[in-house]
Write a structure and sequence with these properties.
Layout (H helix, E strand, L loop, with lengths): L7 H11 L21 E7 L5 E12 L3 E11 L7 H16 L4 E4 L6 H9 L23
Parallel strand pairs: 3-4
Antiparallel strand pairs: 1-2, 2-3
Protein name: N-acetyltransferase domain-containing protein
Organism: Thalassospira lucentensis
Amino acid sequence: MLQADLTFDRWCEFVAECCSPTSEIVPGEGCEDILWLRSRGIIVVANERGYIHGLFSYQVHDDMADGRVLHLDNVMTVEIVSRPYVLDAMREAMTRLAGEHQCGNVYVSLGEMDQRQRDYFKAAGFTPRKVRYCAPATPFKPAISA
């Protein structure tokens, strides 16, 4: 969508990992809401024609400080109008997921350059809480030389 360097094969690997079966859910009769009960997955926002306007991946996990939390990553939106319809739909999905999984907090990781998303989440009551750093997984180099 917005990842020009993402290959189709890598996307398929990512989806397979996020959406692989989990032992906690047993499909059966009357399970129309089964996807909301998964502890990890991908939520897609699409219009009535099936065009994807946004997506995010999520995972529910136990945080040492906050207990059960919903963590969102890979937040991507294509807003073709000035109003935040897609982000609003995503926010509704986040709220539902957090409620279904009894999460105390929702963490959202955003690309550092996406000011529109940052402004939206700030206005929705999100505040910076934890800082996440990223480095290539190369051989260890001490941060401080002796």
